[in-house]
């Protein structure tokens, strides 16, 4: 099965969720990933995934886990991506899309913006950390739903 976390790239939610997913859905890992180095790493992964499907690993159920940031072109990129799977004769039941956009709030948007400005990076790190802590329960909810939907579906 292919699991694709997607969003607009204005936050670190997608990369945070994929890291937790690949590491066995360990909910306690959220705090470990939110130190300064972890935030920089998550931000870097998000930047790499803008307009690209980035393979991040294989989970415990042998599902392939990807990250895709669509920027502002979500309505174009998602159908295009699904058509590629269709062309390669991959059953749609084997593709699970996880939308991380509903979790994004102003903390994430501002934090992401400030991460791109070198002298404001420390403020960006604090905002992204605060956003992830504020939305912790929603992130866990998405991960729990994903775990149920992808368990042993290969």
From TrEMBL:
Pfam families: DUF3189 (PF11385). Keywords: Membrane, Transmembrane, Transmembrane helix. The chain crosses the membrane at residues 65-87, 107-128. The keyword Transmembrane helix applies. It comes from the Bacteria. This is Uncharacterized protein. It comes from Alkaliphilus peptidifermentans DSM 18978.
